[in-house]
Amino acid sequence: MAPPPKPPPARKLLCMCSLSLCLTYACYSLMGGPGDRRAPLAPQAASAAPPTPPRLRTPLASTPPSSAPSSPAPTDGGVAPSGPEPPAGPAASATPEYGEKRLPQALIIGVKKGGTRALLEALRAHPEVRAVGTEPHFFDRNYHRGLDWYRDVMPRTVEGQLTMEKTPSYFVTTEAPKRIHSMAKDTKLIVVVRDPVTRAISDYTQTLSKKPDIPTFEVLAFKNRTLGLIDASWSAIRIGLYALHLESWLQYFPLSQMHFVSGERLITDPAGEMGKVQDFLGLRQVVTEKYFYFNKTKGFPCLKKPDESSSSSPHCLGKSKGRTHPQIDQDVIQRLRKFYKPFNTMFYQMTGQDFQWEQEEGAQ
Ligand SMILES: *[C@@H]1O[C@H](CO)[C@@H](O)[C@H](O)[C@H]1NC(C)=O
Ligand SMILES: *[C@@H]1O[C@H](CO)[C@@H](O)[C@H](O)[C@H]1NC(C)=O
Question: Which ranges does the record mark as transmembrane (predicted)?
Fold first, then answer.
C-alpha cells in the first residue's frame, strides 16, 4: 500500500483526501488475497491481437492500426487524412503531399468508451484540425519506436493547423504523463469522461462482443459478491477511478492545460461541448449547431459536414442501439455506484466540475 507519489505543494489537501481514496482502493484490490490477482481479462490488456480501429470511416481508415505492422513507420496511407473536408483557404490542398508533419500539440488521452471517437470526428470537421484516424498508442505500446516514428504517423499540416491524435489508454498509463511532458510540456490534454458505471458496462459489452465466452459482468466485478467486495483490479472497473488516474497527470501538467469533456453532454448537447473544446484549443468556433442533426432512428446526434457530398455516410456520436447491453442485476449496479461515489466526488473537486453522475442513480 504505497502512498501516492509526491504531490505539488498546493495540492496537499486534495492529496490527503485522495490518500484515503487510495487506501480504500488498495483495500478493495487487496482483500480477497494477494494471490487472487486476476490475469488480465480486461479488454484493453488483452493484447494478443491489437484491437481493430473503429471502422466508422472505413474508406479512410482502411489500414490496420500502427501497432500492427512490423514496418517501423507506417506509410502515409496508414493514417487517415483528417476527413473528407479539405482545409479551408487558398493555400490548402487535399493532397497528402502538402504541408509538413508535426508532433501533436493536443491529445485526446481518454477515456475508453467515454466518447473519444465521437469527439475526434467532430474535431476533424474543423478545418484547422488535422488528426490521425487510428490510435497510434505511442505513449503506451509504441514508445520504443521513438519520436521520429510518432511524427511520421501524423498527417501533414499547413501553418495554423493543429495536429492531434487520440489514444484513450493514455489516461490510465502510468508512464504517459511523464513521456508526454518530455515531448512538449505545453501539450494540451483532453479527457472525455462518462459515468464510470455505464462506462464499465459498455467496456464489458465491447469485450463480450469479441469474446462471447467470458464470465458474466457480475462475476468479474466482484472478488466476493456475498461480501460485496468490488474487484478494482479488473480494468473495466479500474479505468473509472478517474480521480486516481488524474492525480498522476497533475504531477506533470497544470489543470489549466487539461480539458474535461462530459461524455453525456457530448451526446445531449454536442454543439455546447464542442464550443468549450474549441475554446480550450484556441480554435475559431466552426463546429457549431449547424454541424449536428439528430437522427431519430439512431437515437444519437450525427455530424453534418456542410459542404460534404451526400455520398458518404454521416458519422454519428454514438452507435445505433444495435449492441444491446446485457442485463446487469440492479443490486450490482447499486453496489458499483456506492463504490464509485467517493472517487467521483474527489474527481469533481479536482477538476472543479460537477459531472452529475449521481443523478443517474436517481434514474435507476
Ligand atoms: C465470500 O465470503 C464469504 C463470507 O466470508 C465466504 O463464506 C465465502 O467462501 C467467500 N466466497 C468466495 C468465493 O471467496
Ligand atoms: C439515420 O440512421 C439510420 C440508421 O442507421 C440510417 O439508415 C439513416 O440513413 C439515417 N438518417 C439520416 C438522415 O442520416
Answer: none
